[in-house]
């Protein structure tokens, strides 16, 4: 606030207060994004409690309605040693696929047979991240390699929010169709996650992948932390307009005992049947000049 001068000048300024409108106080700067994420984790039960969950079992029933109105249903199970995403394991009954990664590299069994593709070594982690990153917000914002960006203010349904931009590592998701830049909106009072936005992605040559507006509902308490029982994604076009394309996940959680965990993440494929990394050819030496 501006200080008033003494003497006659002060009388002149005070005399004009009846006719000059008071200037509104400037809005305080937004908190540091790290502080917002920390407080959001606290509001959901605390990062320490999340880390202590141990092996978390996540069962998902999914229903996707495509842009042309087709309905696709599927199910998936994920096991994750918190804080995640690795060690982790996922099971996809429809594809008859079981895959895991204990931290030393991914493996997969398709219809009981070893997946021989060298890309499996790193794609398992990316697949687990793709299916659980938004579901485990705000805790997943502490995963390795995530960079917090600028914070802006806004309002959603009349409630003020902090919008935090986050940048995900280049190899974070299993598909380039998922954007590496996300916006996470937090309630300014409670610091709860209100929604997350993954913008549409330009894949080049005139091809664009839909973005997503993600919201969560039906929270359930698991080992001292709150996790969503339902997640809904609405497709977004390049301008951020909502599309008819939607996906809903209904989620159930359980804590896996140490006895059950056993070899949950360990590679069951004999070493001789595991994919071999591509052999690097030595560089060709140029012929010696005469």
Shape: globular
Alpha-carbon distance between the two ends: 83 Å
How do the helices and strands follow one another from N- to C-terminus?
A: HHHEEEEEEHEEEEEEEEEH
Largest sheet: 13 strands, antiparallel
Mean pLDDT: 88
Could you explain how this protein is built, in words?
The protein contains five helices and 15 strands. With 290 residues, it is mainly beta.
Please give a handful of descriptors for the protein shown.
single chain, 290 residues, mainly beta, two-stranded antiparallel sheet, globular
Give the helices and strands, then pairings:
Elements: H1 8-15, H2 33-43, H3 47-51, E1 55-65, E2 71-81, E3 88-92, E4 97-101, E5 106-110, E6 113-114, H4 120-132, E7 147-156, E8 159-167, E9 181-187, E10 193-198, E11 201-204, E12 207-209, E13 211-222, E14 225-236, E15 242-256, H5 258-261
Antiparallel strand pairs: 1-2, 1-15, 2-3, 3-4, 4-5, 5-6, 7-8, 8-9, 9-10, 10-13, 11-12, 13-14, 14-15
Short structural description:
The chain is 14% helix and 40% strand.
């Amino acid at each position: 606030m501006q200080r008033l001068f003494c003497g006659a000048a002060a009388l002149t300024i005070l005399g004009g207060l009846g006719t000059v409108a008071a200037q509104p106080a400037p809005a305080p700067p937004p908190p540091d994004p790290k502080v917002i994420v920390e407080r959001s984790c606290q509001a959901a039960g605390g990062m320490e409690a999340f880390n202590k969950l141990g092996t978390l079992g996540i069962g998902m029933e999914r229903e996707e309605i495509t842009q042309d109105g087709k309905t696709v249903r599927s199910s998936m199970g994920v096991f994750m040693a918190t804080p995640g995403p690795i060690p982790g394991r996922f099971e996809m009954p429809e594809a008859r696929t079981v895959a895991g990664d204990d931290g030393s590299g991914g493996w997969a069994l398709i219809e009981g047979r070893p997946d021989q593709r060298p890309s499996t070594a790193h794609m398992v982690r990316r697949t687990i991240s793709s299916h659980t990153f938004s579901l485990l917000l705000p805790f997943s914002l502490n995963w390795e390699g995530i960079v917090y960006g600028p914070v802006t203010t806004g309002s959603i349904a009349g409630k003020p929010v902090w919008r935090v931009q986050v940048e995900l590592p280049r190899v974070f998701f299993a598909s380039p169709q998922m954007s590496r830049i996300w916006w996470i909106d937090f309630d300014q009072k409670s610091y709860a996650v209100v929604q997350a936005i993954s913008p549409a992605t330009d894949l080049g040559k005139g091809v664009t992948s839909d973005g997503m507006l993600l919201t969560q509902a039906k929270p359930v308490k698991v080992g001292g932390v709150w996790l969503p029982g339902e997640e809904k994604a609405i497709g977004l076009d390049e301008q951020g307009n909502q599309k008819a394309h939607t996906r809903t996940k209904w989620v159930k959680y359980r804590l896996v005992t140490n006895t059950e965990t056993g070899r949950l993440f360990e590679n069951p494929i004999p070493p001789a049947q595991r994919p071999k990394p591509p052999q690097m050819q030595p560089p060709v030496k140029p012929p010696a000049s005469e």
